[in-house]
Specification:
Strand order of the largest sheet of chain B: 2-1-5-4-3
CATH topology of the largest domain in chain B: Beta-Lactamase
Largest interface: A-B, 38 and 43 residues
Helix content of chain A: under 10%
Number of helices of chain B: 11
Strand content of chain B: 15-25%
Strand content of chain A: over 45%
CATH class of the largest domain in chain B: Alpha Beta
Oligomer: heterodimer
Distance between the termini of chain A: 70 Å
CATH architecture of the largest domain in chain B: 2-Layer Sandwich
Order of helices and strands of chain B: HHEEHEEEHHHEHEEHEEHHEEH
Helix content of chain B: 55-70%
Shape of chain B: rod-shaped
CATH superfamily of the largest domain in chain B: PAS domain
Structural class of chain B: alpha+beta
Distance between the termini of chain B: 59 Å
Radius of gyration of chain B: 64 Å
């Protein structure tokens, strides 16, 4: 008995030695062909070849200078902001500055129509889901009052009942809840909904003057407050802190999940797919900066901008929300500063930015047509 | 039998340990280095693949943004710009080729002299291929256009950093490996020493046992197999010691027993010899008379004499038989008869009365001086003793002589004395008279009917009664001194004490 177990042990030891010395964590190198020549070795790889990934690829790239794209009216027409040279310019520091008005711009022929010519800076235009109404702000610097415009009749109603500094809305804040209601936070820390007739209702008074990224799902109100804290207010209950270090939160179109950008480390942000309570379902991407995240209308894809220390990996990305597969779409396409916008069909992406022109900045919009 | 050369345990263990340590350290470093190399290659491949993806994206982007043209023209036109761009993005020297394999863009910081003709064909077929030499690697990947491959991008990667890293690790392994090996060997040697020392202790212990110097204590202490072995060896030693001692003891007892048996055998032989001799004598006499009777059956005088003599001889024989039996029974059994308190004065008086007849026949008178004295004994034995003594006193007396019987208490013992005015006992015979069958004067004893057994028996009986028998010369004239037989026996009250002590023993 003892003899047998001894032999077993010796056999096992030899086997282990043999395996470890030959194998040792080597992937089966069946995907290559190695040819040894004089002084050099040639390796031919059989695997996938770059640039052949068909799932997400750019088919067309259009650069539209001078406009700042904000939303899609339809597959060929975009809503954009453009300096209206037909109005009276202001002279600032010996330079002429025209007011920025909202236009509808046709991509195919470049024709444009100013929606509401005025001597005011119109910004942050968002179209209602049925494209019949427009929510925009008239800006002074980076804040402004909100307005609702009937696209057909051109009638405009203010989004807030009063227009005191308390009702100022920051930049691109706010969203359409449905085809008749918008939701937005004000500088006073209050959260309002307004309907297309301009009837306003206050949903919450957070007392936090820095709230942004306000969204509503069912009777849950999400907003990000001071110090990158994500709050959630359900029904009549007081708001509670859901998570810290949250930079952006973007609910999916089907209201089942959230895309969340969190700061995970000094110099690193991570894009997560989470459930409605913020619990992680998947990690999609990591980078120095991630912003402009937008869900495609059918909720299958997420487009976002990523900036990394290594220049080659900065650019536009599209992530598949189901498989988690991430594909780089463009390389280093300037610094996209706005939220990306998917066209209604999901075939096109609009990315707007400002580029340095001379000693100032000029808007530029890229239209990216993806291979379907 | 010639013994094989001895390889000490220390050597075996030490050598084995050294070999094991060396082999494992060497194997470890080898495998780790291999692993590192493999890992480096994998990472490199992944890196370069990603770079080629970026290159592809860049080329495509540039193509799409610019005015539409044929892709080969585009490459030739913008190739340099693209190469520079990609070089910037990836941080590597880049060369871009068109579908003919001609370089269209070159972003090398310094010219490289690697010939890539051998691998160009693979890349033109749309495969990723790289060529590695000792210090550099050239990686070729296809560039894709709208409808298939439009060119090739080449990255030149310097392997010197990787090689340097490997060399550093190698050296590190060598140095630390040696250090660890030395350290390991040192510790191993110490351990081996300690272990073999313990084993040596056990060996010594075994050697001691072999030389019959049994162990006084456990040779080793410890909570492992050696400790257990030590316990077992010690245990065996004790057992062995004990067994041998027991055997020696048994041997001694056996020798003693054999000695006693041999003595007994000799005594018995002598005894039987004596008995047969003693039995022969009366039988001869009886037979003689029977023969005489046969011959002279009409002689009344002879008949009468014969009658008397035969009767006497027969009586003597019977007495002898009884005496022998008694002796034998005495040796076998202890006091079977009940010991009672006996008043010797009265007993002696009685015995003297019985013997007066015989005494008268011999012309001897018996005088007494008896005081009451009580001893513990059985009547039969005491009677035997004093009948014997009286008988001797009468037999070995002279006509007109006397026998004096005394009993008294003296210094805590009972003293019983029988004195005669007979022939006395010679000095040299005094010690021997108590031996079985010894008679001072054989003829005389026959004449008086003595068998020689009597005194032996008497002495034995007296000793069984915890008493003493002594004999001295009497106070008569030198040619007829007479003898004094003195019997000392413990008094009854003292006897009880003595019995108690005996039982305690």
């Amino acid at each position: 008995m003892n003899d047998y177990s001894n032999k077993m042990m010796i056999g096992a030891a030899i086997a282990i030695l043999a395996i470890s010395s030959t194998g040792c964590g080597v992937q089966p190198q069946t995907d290559r062909q190695v040819i040894d020549g004089n002084n050099k070795q040639i390796t031919v790889l059989d695997g996938p070849v770059p640039g052949t990934d068909q799932s997400v690829a750019v088919e067309q790239l259009q650069k539209v200078p001078g406009i700042r794209g904000m939303d899609w009216l339809d597959g060929d027409t975009v809503l954009a902001a453009k300096a209206n040279t037909e109005r009276t310019p202001q002279v600032i520091e010996e330079k002429e500055r025209y007011p920025v008005n909202l236009v509808s711009y046709t991509l195919t022929d470049g024709s444009e129509t100013v929606l509401q010519p005025a001597d005011q800076d119109q910004h942050a235009g968002m179209l209602s889901p049925d494209k019949r109404f427009l929510f925009y702000k008239v800006m002074e610097e980076s804040v402004g009052f909100g307005y609702l415009r009937d696209m057909e009749t051109g009638d405009i109603v203010p989004a807030t009942e009063r227009q005191t500094p308390d009702e100022l809305i920051e930049g691109y804040e706010g969203e359409w809840l449905d085809s008749e209601h918008v939701l937005f936070p004000t500088m006073s820390g209050k959260i309002y909904t307004a309907n297309i007739e301009g009837h306003t209702e206050m949903l919450a008074d957070t007392g936090d003057l820095t709230i942004h990224d306000v969204h509503k799902i069912g009777d849950r109100l999400y907003y990000i407050g001071s110090g990158q804290q994500l709050f959630i207010q359900e029904g009549e209950e007081p708001a509670r802190l859901l998570m810290e270090q949250v930079i952006w939160v973007i609910p999916s179109p089907d209201h089942q999940s959230l895309a969340m950008v969190r700061r995970t480390r000094e110099g690193e942000m991570t894009l997560y797919l989470t459930d409605l309570d913020g619990k992680d379902k998947a990690v999609l991407s990591k980078g120095m900066q991630i912003f402009g995240t937008a869900w495609s209308r059918d909720g299958t894809r997420l487009a976002y901008n990523l900036i990394n220390a290594e220049n080659g990996t900065s650019g536009l990305y599209v992530a598949d929300a189901v498989t988690g597969k991430v594909t780089q779409v463009t390389v280093d396409l300037e610094d996209i500063s706005n939220q990306l916008q998917w066209s209604p069909s999901g075939e096109q992406l609009m990315a707007a930015t400002m580029v340095r022109e001379g000693d100032g900045y000029e808007p530029v919009t890229y239209i990216i047509k993806l291979r379907s | 039998m010639r013994r094989l050369p001895r390889i000490s345990l220390k050597l075996q263990l030490g050598l084995g340990l050294a070999i094991l340590l060396t082999v494992s350290t060497w194997l470890l470093s080898l495998l780790v280095l291999q692993g590192i190399e493999r890992q480096q290659l994998t990472e490199l491949e992944q890196n370069l693949l990603q770079h080629s993806e970026i290159a592809n994206l860049r080329v495509r982007q540039t193509f799409l943004l610019g005015e539409r043209m044929e892709d080969q023209t585009f490459l030739r036109l913008r190739g340099q710009e693209l190469a520079a761009n990609v070089g910037l993005l990836t941080g590597l020297p880049v060369i871009i080729y068109d579908l003919q394999g001609r370089p269209v863009g070159n972003a090398l910081l310094s010219p490289i002299d690697t010939k890539i003709e051998d691998i160009l064909s693979y890349a033109l077929e749309g495969k990723i291929v790289y060529q590695s030499s000792a210090d550099a690697l050239d990686y070729l990947a296809p560039l894709q256009g709208a409808s298939g491959q439009i060119g090739i991008v080449q990255f030149h990667y310097s392997l010197s950093e990787q090689q340097a890293f490997l060399k550093r690790i190698e050296r590190l392994f060598l140095v630390t490996g040696l250090a660890v090996l030395m350290g390991g060997l040192l510790c191993g040697t110490l351990f081996v020493h300690w272990l073999t020392a313990r084993i040596a202790k056990l060996r010594n212990a075994a050697g001691k046992i072999r030389g019959r110097r049994f162990l006084q204590e456990k040779p080793l202490r410890g909570r492992d197999e050696l400790g257990e072995l030590s316990e077992d060896i010690y245990h065996m030693s004790r057992e062995l010691e004990g067994n041998i001692a027991t055997l020696e003891e048994e041997k001694r007892k056996l020798k003693l027993a054999i000695g006693k048996l041999q003595l007994l055998e000799r005594q018995q032989k002598q005894f039987i010899g004596n008995i047969s001799h003693e039995f022969k004598t009366p039988l001869t006499s009886i037979k003689a008379y029977v023969d005489l009777m046969d011959m002279y059956d009409d002689d009344p005088g002879l008949t009468r004499q014969a009658h008397t003599q035969i009767g006497q001889e027969a009586q003597r024989l019977q007495e002898m038989v009884e005496k022998v039996l008694h002796l034998s029974s005495l040796e076998k059994y202890e006091f079977e008869q009940e010991a009672v308190a006996l008043e010797m004065g009265a007993l002696l008086e009685e015995l003297c009365e019985r013997m007066r007849g015989k005494a008268a026949r011999h012309g001897v008178t018996i005088a007494t001086s008896l005081t009451p004295v009580v001893i513990l004994g059985d009547r039969e034995s005491l009677t035997q003793i004093f009948i014997n003594l009286l008988d001797n006193a009468i037999k070995y007396n002279v006509s007109g002589g006397s026998v004096v019987v005394e009993s008294l208490e003296h210094e805590g013992v009972a003293v019983l004395r029988v004195s005669d005015t007979g022939i006395g006992i010679p000095e040299e015979a005094k010690a021997r008279i108590f031996e079985p069958f010894y008679t001072v004067n054989k003829d005389r004893s026959r004449q008086s009917g003595g068998s020689g057994l009597g005194l032996a028996l008497v002495k034995e009986t007296i000793e069984k009664l915890h008493g003493e028998l002594s004999v001295e010369k009497g106070s008569g004239p030198p040619e007829q001194p007479g003898s004094v037989f003195t019997v000392r026996l413990p008094l009854h009250r003292h006897r009880a004490e003595m019995d108690g002590e005996e039982e305690a023993e």
